[in-house]
Structure formats: C-alpha cells, structure tokens
Amino acid sequence: MRNIAIFASGSGSNAENIIRYFKNHPDVIIDSVWSNKKEAYVLQRAKNLGVESNYFTRQEYYDSDQMIRELQKRNIELIVLAGFLWLVPPEFIDAFEIINIHPALLPNYGGKGMYGSRVHESVISNKESESGITIHLVNKEYDKGEHLLQVKCPVFPEDTPDTLAARIHELEYEYFPAAIEDFLNRKS
Ligand code: GAR
C-alpha cells in the first residue's frame, strides 16, 4: 500500500476531491489530513469521509522532529499540499516527496503570501488574459520546485477573484488527483 498524507490550511475542497478519488483505489491510501489551523473546514471534511484529521502547531512543525517521525512511522510515501500556507521546512523535504498545487501559472504569481484569492486578485488587476494551475514538486523555496503539470484557462475582462477562483478550482478537481496518481506510477 502507498500512503499519502494531505496538508491543508483552509476549506479543503481539493483535499476532499483527492480523498474521494482514491477511496476505492487498489493500492493508494489517504492515511490522514493535517492542518495548521484548528478551525480549518478541511479537518471536518476529512472526518466526514472517515479519514483521520490532525491539527499541528507551529512549534510541532518547525521546531521538533515529532511530526516527521510520526509520518515515517506510518510509511507515508508522499505528502500532498492542498491549499497549505506554511513554508515546508528542509527536514520535511529531505524526508519525503512532496507535491503542491498552485492556482496560477508559475513562475508568475507565486512566492510567499501568494495564496488563494490574493493570487486571483493580482492576475485580474494585471489584466492577464490567461491563468491556470501548476502542480509541482516542493523544494526549499516557495513555489520553485520542478513542474509536473500546468493547465491553462482564460481570464475574462468581467472576471472577479471569485469567478476566476471557481474556474481554477474546476481545473484543480479535474487534474490534481490524476497528477498524483501519475506521479506515483512513474516512480514505482
Ligand atoms: C486552491 O485553489 C489551491 O490551489 C490554493 O489554495 C486553494 C485551496 O482551496 N493553493 C495556494 O494558493 C498555495 N499557494 P481548497 O481549500 O478549497 O482546496
């Protein structure tokens, strides 16, 4: 069995979509969901779907190896960041393979603070005619790891951050779980 842990900070609609995709998968298991926000709706979504959900503090994440040891004990093969806010510490990057999804066409509109609707606001205020998603490996800098997949969508003059976010979310739901599966297949 190949165990995945999902890290998320917010609503968790991608996390839910990934859990549903792998629900009856013959060899991939979503072991657990981890959030740095106690109130994040993603924790509730995971529970509703029968997946273990865990909250962790800044101290547990950055200043101890407790989480890494726990994830290793569970034989986690891949960590998936699905709307996760904090920079990943180097110790995690050395210990696990990690995939992130970003709601824009990196290298544009990435980096610290570029999260969720802030990304879409910037894309719209710069009058871009296209945006999209980037699925990439995580390295020691925000949004700089090797790209696995980019998919584009149009940006219309009448778009608001919400309408653009909805279009981007549709792309995420369509492509992210399959990209995770492809990644695992290629490395097996
Ligand atoms: C997603 O659009 C994801 O691409 C983005 O946060 C949203 C989370 O939505 N991630 C980033 O901005 C990472 N820098 P969700 O909680 O509904 O899955």
List its salient traits.
188 residues; alpha/beta; Rossmann fold; 7 helices; 38% helix; 24% strand; binds glycinamide ribonucleotide
Description:
This protein has 188 residues and is an alpha/beta fold. It has a single domain (2-187), classed as Formyl transferase, N-terminal domain (Rossmann fold, 3-Layer(aba) Sandwich). The chain is built from seven helices and seven strands. The chain has helices at residues 13-21, 41-48, 58-62, 66-73, 90-95, 117-125, 161-187, and strands at 2-7, 28-35, 52-55, 76-81, 97-102, 130-137, 147-154. α1 (13-21) packs parallel to α7 (161-187) and α6 crosses α7. The model has no long low-confidence stretch (mean pLDDT 96). The structure holds glycinamide ribonucleotide (GAR).
Distance between the termini: 12 Å
* Number of domain units: 1
The major beta sheet can be summarized as: 7 strands, mixed
The strand line-up of the biggest sheet is 3-2-1-4-5-6-7
Radius of gyration: 16 Å
The percent range for helix content is 25-40%
Q: Segments where pLDDT lies below 50 for 5+ residues?
A: none
Bound molecules: glycinamide ribonucleotide
Q: Which class of secondary structure composition applies to the elements?
A: alpha/beta
Q: What's the CATH architecture?
A: 3-Layer(aba) Sandwich
